[in-house]
Amino acid sequence: MGEWMEQIARTATQESWGYLNGCQYTLHDRDKKFCASFRSALAAAGVKPIMLPAKSPNLNAYAERWVRSVKQECLSKLVLLGEGPLQRSLSEYTAHYHLERNHQGKDNKLLTPLAVSKSRKIHCHQRLGGLLKFYAAPHEYFGLTRKLRSRRTRLERRQPSARTVWNVADKLQTLMDRADIPKPRILVAHSYGALVAIAYALRHLSVL
Question: Can you give the pTM of this predicted structure?
Answer without folding.
Answer: 0.49
